[in-house]
């Protein structure tokens, strides 16, 4: 079994955003999230808490335009820092899934840390925003994460309340990730020998 520290840090600065993320896959779910978008902070905090990953996100961006660039770029940086923390992915379970309810909503997430970024996303939102967070950005965040991390994500949610649906998705994502990164052996789970 591997005992290598599974931590990574990454900063990315563009003309639109300035983002730094620190991630520890073997943490206890401690988070410090600052994005300037309250509901997005809440979702990233929930992801950290339920995955058990320690997560620090300091993100600033052109919120006077809207939250699009900041949410998208946070997904990109989180995906890259996740890939770095997983290194060669030796020993991980690789696959993870979860079904999480939140009141009337039910979210299902299945994922494969297989080196190929792809998102399948089935969700309909009724409101344009939850607080100052655009509901459209939920799909875009997970797509940005999937592509930059090299991960397959299959996600769906049903329900009536957009807050509940999005939160259930983030929590299901957290539990699926928690299961997928568990160290099960000292081998790479691929017939190719690499991921």
Automatic annotation (TrEMBL):
BP term (GO), one: L-histidine biosynthetic process
InterPro entries: IGPD_sf, ImidazoleglycerolP_deHydtase, ImidazoleglycerP_deHydtase_CS, Ribosomal_Su5_D2-typ_SF
Catalytic activity annotation: D-erythro-1-(imidazol-4-yl)glycerol 3-phosphate = 3-(imidazol-4-yl)-2-oxopropyl phosphate + H2O
Leading EC class: lyase
SUPFAM superfamilies: Ribosomal protein S5 domain 2-like
A GO CC annotation given for this chain: cytoplasm
Subcellular localization, as worded in the UniProt entry: Cytoplasm
EC nos: 4.2.1.19
Metabolic or biological pathway, per its Swiss-Prot or TrEMBL entry: Amino-acid biosynthesis; L-histidine biosynthesis; L-histidine from 5-phospho-alpha-D-ribose 1-diphosphate: step 6/9
Gene Ontology molecular functions: imidazoleglycerol-phosphate dehydratase activity
Keywords: Amino-acid biosynthesis, Cytoplasm, Histidine biosynthesis, Lyase
PROSITE patterns linked: IGP_DEHYDRATASE_1, IGP_DEHYDRATASE_2
Family statement drawn from the similarity comment of this UniProt entry: Belongs to the imidazoleglycerol-phosphate dehydratase family.
NCBIfam families the UniProt entry points to: PRK00951.2-1, PRK00951.2-4
Protein name: Imidazoleglycerol-phosphate dehydratase
Source species of the chain: Methanolapillus ohkumae
